[in-house]
Design a protein that fits this description.
Jelly Rolls
Length: 204
């Protein structure tokens, strides 16, 4: 795993074992994850979505605490996966980074609490699987409009963005901040939903 440009976001690039039968890979390994991130991935819910080409889902985030960290993979097709720093007070507040996730390289993205998540399907039937550290709770789930010019996310050229009515009604980042919807960076750092396990005597 290697860190992305936004604090609290990592990219996992698995080693693919290919032969005449197909491909095998380790999509997740707790030891590798904990060593890179300094925390555990405590699984609370697994979500799976399919999207046709052009569909944008997000930018989504949850209240902190407790927050919701995500481990995201594309198991069919391809998506442009986008992480947005929505943490007020963060050195990279309002910045974003996009990563190609597809069923060829099998990369995954982990994003910590307070980071916004979105993706755009680059193929029909793009299938995305999310492992999350807390379950869905509509009372604490929020969104920022993915086409907000103040964010300036560069989506895939040559596609017509398709949004859900809910995502299309989401406020821009300036409005979300003014309404007090966005998480504070200090809270996100102080309240990870799955902190690192304490070191045992054998590891000291």
């Amino acid at each position: 795993m290697k860190p992305l440009s936004l604090e609290g976001a990592w990219l996992y690039e698995p080693h693919l074992h290919e032969d005449e039968r197909g491909t095998f890979l380790e999509a997740f390994r707790s030891e590798t994850f904990e060593r890179a991130t300094g925390r555990r991935l405590e699984l609370a819910q697994v979500n799976c979505s399919t999207s046709r080409r052009g569909v944008i889902r997000g930018v989504h985030f949850a209240d902190v605490p407790p927050g919701q960290a995500k481990y995201v993979s594309c198991v069919r097709g391809a998506v442009l996966d986008v992480v947005v720093d929505l943490r007020v007070g963060s050195p990279t507040y309002r910045q974003w980074e996009g990563v190609l996730l597809d069923d060829r390289d099998r990369r995954s993205v982990f994003l910590s609490e307070g980071l916004g998540h979105a993706f755009q399907a680059l193929t029909d039937d793009a299938t995305v699987v999310y492992l999350t550290t807390s379950g869905y709770d509509p009372a604490r789930e929020h969104g920022v409009h993915p086409l907000d010019p103040e964010l300036g996310i560069v989506w895939a050229p040559g596609t017509d963005p398709v949004l859900s009515p809910k995502d299309d009604r989401a406020p821009g980042i300036a409005e979300a901040e003014a309404r007090g919807l966005l998480p504070r960076h200090e809270d996100c750092v102080r309240h990870p939903s799955s902190p690192a396990a304490p070191l045992s005597e054998e590891t000291l």
